[in-house]
Specification:
about 250 residues; alpha/beta; TIM Barrel; 6-stranded parallel beta sheet; 3-stranded parallel beta sheet; 10 helices; about 40% helix; disordered C terminus; protein tyrosine phosphatase activity; manganese ion binding; Caps_polysacc_synth_CpsB/CapC; EC 3.1.3.48
């Protein structure tokens, strides 16, 4: 399996603390059936700044350590970028790192409690530059939970989304789990990833999530998500199904 969102790089954010921690995470990932991981440290989320060249250097070193320790896991380039007004200045300054550094797909994080008013503009401008934003864990965003239609609009405008495996299996609570299911049912989800930060409470639950999806929606839906991750690894375009609009609320209930 391929995990497109993981905080496995040592000592750069709220994920792995050091190389020992990263190797332990890698072992757990392999045990969980994962063969490839995109290392996606936080960037410009008000706490952490991890620019492109630093990430590239750390990924090289982590891959060397994995080989030295005979851990069959490949780490690939990535970054989780918090949306901000100056994102295009960061792009010009070579601070931003797209997945595989191919200039095509970018993990984009929204603030947990809201969707900035300039989000539509950023998505539009990124697409003009040939970069497709993948909005990470939209199911955990307070404004999107309260306004499902807004997520539909963002996807209709060209953004893709990545759900967290822990959300699908209920690790973040029933409300987030329920919204995750709605996102899948309305063809608004394109990838599943762990967003793993450690080997404990924020670990590698991808297989569990895929099992849950298979049970609820059939094996074809699971193949869809797995194949989309493979497409990213190959620097190819993932499949995108036509989004289904949400029905209007009646008395606050769907």
């Amino acid at each position: 399996m391929i995990d497109i969102h993981c905080h496995i790089l040592p000592g750069v954010d709220d994920g792995s603390a050091d190389m020992k921690d990263s190797l332990n995470m890698a072992k757990k990932a392999v045990e969980a059936g994962i063969t490839h991981i995109f290392a996606t440290p936080h960037h410009l989320n008000e706490k952490y700044a991890n620019v492109k060249m630093d990430i590239i250097d750390r990924v090289v070193r982590l891959n060397e350590s994995l080989q030295q320790n005979n851990i069959p896991l490949a780490i690939h380039l990535g970054q989780e970028v918090r949306i901000h007004r100056d994102i295009f200045t960061s792009l010009e300054n070579e601070e931003i790192l797209t997945l595989n550094d191919n200039g095509t797909y970018l993990l984009l994080e929204l603030p947990s409690g809201r969707v900035p008013t300039y989000t539509h503009e950023v998505i539009y401008e990124l697409l003009l530059k040939g970069i497709t934003p993948i909005i990470v864990h939209p199911e955990r965003n307070k404004e999107l939970i309260e306004n499902h239609k807004l997520l539909f609009e963002l996807v209709q405008e060209g953004a893709l989304t990545q759900l967290t495996s822990g959300s699908i299996i209920g690790n973040f609570g029933k409300s987030i789990q329920s919204f995750s299911k709605k996102i899948i049912e309305h063809n608004l989800a394109h990838f599943i990833a762990t967003d793993a930060h450690n080997i404990g409470s924020r670990g590698f639950t991808l297989q569990h999530a895929y099992g849950t999806i298979t049970k609820a929606y059939g094996i074809e839906r699971t193949f869809y998500f797995k194949e989309n991750a493979e497409q990213l690894l190959k620097d190819q375009s993932p499949a995108v199904e036509k989004p289904v609009p949400f029905k209007k609320r009646i008395l606050g209930i769907f």
